Amino acid sequence: MIVSKRVQLMLMALNLLIWVSIKKHWNVSIKLKLSPNRSEAWYNEGSTLLKLGRYQEALECYNKVLELDKNDYTTWYNKGNILKEFANTKKP
Hints:
Layout: H1 5-34, H2 39-51, H3 55-68, H4 73-90
Helix pairs in contact: 1-2, 2-3, 3-4
């Protein structure tokens, strides 16, 4: 099967985006191990997981941020969006 150049370029771009997201996730995970009480590290981990579609794990990270800083409005916003997504997917 012959794949057009355009499709090949799109697949290469997609692979690059996935690789960058995984690398960022790995770097943030190391930062979390070094400084588990920094809300910024938990927020970055949650944001990366959210981009990867790992909503439950992102929600857990955002909960940790809110344990450390209950006034972080960006985290409340992201958490609300995840919960809204969960509510929308559970409807029949």
